[in-house]
Amino acid sequence: MSDPERLSTVCVRAGRGVPTDAETASSPISPPLIQSATYSFETMASLEAYLEDPGAGFLYTRYENPTVRRAEAALAELEATESSAVFSSGMAAITSTLLAHLAPGDHIVSMRSIYGGAFKFIRTALPRMGIETDLLETNELAGWEERIRPATKILYLETPTNPGLGVVDLRSLAASAKRRGILTIVDSTFGTPIATQPIALGCDLVVHSASKYLGGHSDLIGGVAAGRQALIAPIGEMRKIYGGSADPFAAWLMLRGMRTLAVRMEAHSARAMEIAKALGTMPAVRQVNYPGLASHPAHALAVKQMRLFGGMLSFDLGSYEAARAAMDRFQVIQRAASLGGVESLASIPIMTSHTGYTDEELMRAGVSRGMVRLSVGLEDARDLIEDLAQAMR
Fold first, then answer.
1. Among the four 71, 146, 224, 293, which has the fewest Cβ within 10 Å?
2. pTM, whole model, 2 decimals?
3. Does CATH place domain 261-391 in 3.20.20.70?
4. For helices 248-259 and 66-78, what crossing angle results, to 10°?
5. Residues 337, 374: contact at Cβ < 8 Å?
6. Of residues 308, 327, 338, 333, the one with CA closest to residue 371
7. Cα R_g (the chain), whole angstroms
8. What are the start and end residues of each CATH 3.40.640.10 domain in the chain?
9. pLDDT, the chain, mean
10. CA-wise closest residue to 20 among 53, 52, 46, 58
11. Residue 107 near residue 152 (C-beta atoms within 8 A)
């Protein structure tokens, strides 16, 4: 993992070294927004030069854009890796990353406790393309090698998991996959590069929904995949084909959000720890899921693997009716589906990320009908605790 003391500096300066215009004696402090769909060439010779080396210029924003390229450089730097590709959504990043490294007849091993959209894509879309999947519970990952076939190409992981906040041993699993020539892909949206850097732990690719903490203000939709250039290149080609390219303004918002990512994550994590401890004292709460708690089953691993425990937690109120009633009584916490913004947002997973799951699928994913997922914002922790307490009286 990168030196933790440098992460704030990396966040503030990430992407500044990427030229987007002619060199001048001075440069803007705020990264410029290049909101252009296409680019002109002075001569045909300059177009021919671009075609020989696309990295030296720009042709069309579905292919590349100066602001997008700057965001990609910043994200690669934050993940301490070579390259990244920015997308129009987190799901575009996930699907393009998987499809870039899979072909009909291939096989992947995936966790079951992953983001609902990714789970549905793996379970329903990949089989129609002739790609098979073994889905494992988190506690089955230690024996994942038993599921390996000659056609296995990818081990797909998520940590911390959504919405159960499970933590998986990235270093051990990545080492096991690497010995067998299998790519390890990790959704690290909940962790962010500030809390966890999967590539530093041996994983090959990391994906994020940039709509969440990377943006941080609930005002953009975007995604990112990061890793070695050799692995990102085919993902970039898939982005061109499927059209999941990021809008330049969304990339500019990512750059703005990344400037404060380190300090925001410190604050989110500190508040989440306070709230998790307070929830544990409330009689209506049956279980609190937060990796920073000593009672969390993977707390020791989280301490070893994560610099911060993050701003996400979930808790179980026993039934959907109880969860619904508490949600209706929130006064400071807002009812919304997303996460990672400055405001605290609560949702019931069976109504959002895990809607349409059968009872068996919910049980196997570690999601109860009475579970509430809370994205802890930057309000005063005392106000949030008081809001939770009054909602559950």
1. 146
2. 0.94
3. no
4. 30
5. no
6. 327
7. 21
8. 4-259
9. 94
10. 58
11. yes
